[in-house]
Amino acid sequence: MTLRGLLLAAGAGRRMGGPKALLRDPSGVPYLDRAIGVLFEGGCDAVTVVLGASAEEAGALLDEAGWRADPAVSTVVADDWDEGMGASLRAGLRAVDGSADDGVLVTLVDLPDVDASVVARVAGAAAGPGALARATYEGRPGHPVLLGRDHWAGVAAVARGDKGARDYLAVHQHVSCECGDLATGRDLDRPADLP
Asked: Residue 138 phi/psi, 5° resolution?
């Protein structure tokens, strides 16, 4: 299975006080840089990053890390990013629609403890263009989410607001891939969540 990471990093981070794509971990590494590396280490063949709010500044971080010089990394800007995660997901799926990828592994830029072991587990939970799986953490649904090519149009049709693929997964059989032994899957929502 040819698998592409789809990293959603377009939001304004209103509750955080700024775009999460611009955040750095305590050692100074941009979360954007870390998330791309995690996708590759977890088994993705390529990565598409969806930017929106502060796209130029986030692009500068990608340049700083050397990612935009890597032919396996591409970026797309979701012009309607302020609608929510659904807009980012739609933009990402449109961008990869012409690719030869069998599936995408969708994740978020603000998941500091989701590492390559989580990505690999979800990526291995199902295979082929019909694959549909999502990480769970002690039974709580989260990211990453594996979407085989057969599901891209259906997910794009229902991705609205901050729901992303949630409504699609609610009515389509998928593999729930428990990852609570590897990570919490919690996102960084407010400044108090920062390590």
From this structure: 50, 40
H helices present in the chain, as ranges? 31-41, 55-65, 85-96, 116-123, 152-158, 166-171
Whether the predicted model's global pTM rises above the 0.90 cut: yes
Domain membership of residue 16 as a residue range: 3-193
**What tens digit of pLDDT does each residue of 20-62 get?**
888 888 888 888 999 999 999 999 999 999 999 899 999 999 9
- For residue 22, how many C-alpha atoms fall within 13 Å in the half-sphere facing its CB? 16
Q: What is the CA radius of gyration of the chain?
A: 15
Residue 82's φ and ψ, nearest 5 degrees, are -70, -10
CATH number at residue 74: 3.90.550.10
Sheet hosting strand 132-137, strand order edge to edge: 73-77, 46-51, 3-9, 103-108, 140-148, 132-137, 175-178
The number of domains in the chain is: 1
